[in-house]
Amino acid sequence: MELSLTNFTILLGFAGAFISCTTSLPQAVRAWREPTECLIGVSVWTWRLMALNALIWLVWALLVGQICVGLPSLINGPAALVILWRTRRL
Asked: What whole-number distance in Å separates Cα of residue 13 and Cα of residue 84?
């Protein structure tokens, strides 16, 4: 099977989406497992911005029909909300 430029672009988009999801998921898992006292040093503004960023990218992806771009938002947005909820600073 020949890899066309279109197929390569789609594959690259999904690879980027997967890698983007790996940036916030480990932090969310740790925030979920650790006692809240261990989360004192978490940057609240970073995770608020991450949640807002995820929302904006998801809306944009839906509006223009570029699902690859919106996929990380389905992981990063909820991960940011979990972290903010666990730090009690949502």
From this structure: 28
d(CA 81, CA 27): 11
Spatial separation of the C-alpha atoms in residues 82 and 42, rounded to whole Å: 12
- Residues 26-85 have pLDDT tens digits of 888 888 888 888 888 888 899 999 999 999 989 998 999 888 778 889 999 999 999 999
Domain ranges of the chain: 5-33+41-86
Q: CATH code for 5-33+41-86?
A: 1.20.1280.290
C-alpha span between 73 and 14 (Å, rounded) = 13
Tokens found for residue 29: 């898992």
Helices 5-33 and 73-86: crossing angle in degrees, nearest 10, is 10
